[in-house]
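REQUEST ID: PR-0412
SUBMITTED BY: lab tech R.K.
PRIORITY: routine
TASK: structure prediction, single protein chain
INPUT:
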Amino acid sequence: MLRALKMKEKRSPSQLEACWKEKDMISGRVSDAMVVIMRTNGCCWAKTGGCTMCGYRQASLTRVAADDLDKQIDEALSKYKGEPFVKIYTSGSFLDEDEIPPVIRERMFREFSGCERILFESRPEFVTPEVIRTLPKTATIALGLESSDPEVLKVSINKGFTQEDSRKAGLLIKEAGLKVRTYLLLKPPFLTESAAIDDTVRSAMFADGFSDEISINPLNVQRGTYAERLWRAGELRSPWLWSLTEVLRRLSGNVSARLMSSPSGGGTSRGVHNCGKCDSAVLDGIGRFSFSQDVKDLDAECGCIGSWQRYLESERILGTAADLDRRFGDDLALGSEKDGGIRH
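STATUS: complete
OUTPUT:
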């Protein structure tokens, strides 16, 4: 922890945390996009405890001034090559004036006014009619709903707002003619694999009423989080890739919003993973589906699907969300070499 704090203090508040290029969608077509991760003073909710799975506080600093943010914009502009889609992320909420002052927000919109689409994330409490009126018509606001279940939001995630808060914010955004991307968390702490699948499907059906896009984000165990403590103790396993494809299959054709998933840490023990042998192929299929919406892109085969099915059934019998492989090993035949094993 001390080493992490020292490294954090060495990071310059006038430099971006990260910047890269990727593909996304604009009006139904594949487009080039630039992703910008800004260093800010951090999420207001994280300062009071934060969400159980969120490690973005590690990217937060305590001394970022408006001048520093201006320099970060300069850096972003130096890397911008005319991509029509720009995504701006902070460690909290882009619409929180204590994190991103209005003058900085206005400059960002001005500098990227030629873009066809600009996306940023915010907690719902900062989505107000007054703020909405200041946003460009090209804006997409990402809302981290995570789950539509009030108990999951309160106990498993400690989100600090309700599903109705997100719904009201989403409807307000839509009424203004802007777009909404809703993030859902697949497998929050304390949920079994099968319960997590059901929760994500229900949450997507709920979010469909106010979302243009629904992004399924499988749990990625980030450092310094409560989720990591559970993971290290063997009380939590990141979801199986088969669970993610199951969610997408169940939702395909049943929601109007575009379905998508770009898992962080996919194929690692901290991120969504199967046996290790099929992870890349399954992840590639999920990536293709996110653009095509063709459920056939999710088709994949591997012997470990049997391990996944036994995992679901064993959790139901035992009534636990613990990592059965690490807690019980081969006694449950959940990670045997004949099925490819599971990397941890």
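NOTES: Residues 1-7, 330-344 have pLDDT under 50 and may be disordered.
REVIEWED BY: pending
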